[in-house]
Amino acid sequence: xxxxxxxxxxxxxxxxxxxxxxxxxxxxxxxxxxxxxxxxxxxxxxxxxxxxxxxxxxxxx
Length: 61
Fold this sequence. Notes:
This protein has a domain at about 20-60. It is about 50% helix and about 0% strand.
């Protein structure tokens, strides 16, 4: 197995591209916005079902 390391800082991600820790509220808002982009007319029931499912997944971790 070959490990590649570089000291070239220009190849690293800039600070604004680093992953951010989201709060539950931010996560839910982002998920709702993404669902609305994917479907033309999502029902509130569908959005709530997906949010409940995502909450159950987050609790398992």
